[in-house]
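In the design runs reported in the main text, the only information available to the sequence generator was the tokenized backbone. The following block is the verbatim input for one such run; it is reproduced so that readers can re-run the procedure and compare outputs position by position.
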């Protein structure tokens, strides 16, 4: 683990999927597009992007593509 970085762990509600990131995020952002508001049930959602080599996934992860308001293709994961 890089100096100063801490391990962050996220789990789904049932515990079948967990993701651990062993680095500081490369980027953190907030989004308030219609899809992100629907997903979060709030006025916005936020996310952090980590280097792929620092992430470990345990369990079955799924994703689905969606074209955002900007026209850019994004992937939603759960």
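Verbatim output:
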């Amino acid at each position: 683990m890089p100096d100063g970085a801490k391990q962050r762990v996220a789990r789904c509600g049932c515990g079948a999927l967990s993701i651990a990131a062993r680095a500081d995020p490369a980027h953190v952002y907030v989004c308030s597009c219609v899809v992100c508001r629907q997903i979060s049930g709030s006025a916005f959602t936020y996310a952090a992007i980590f280097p792929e080599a620092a992430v470990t996934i345990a369990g079955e992860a799924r994703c689905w593509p969606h074209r955002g308001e900007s026209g850019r293709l994004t992937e939603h994961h759960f």
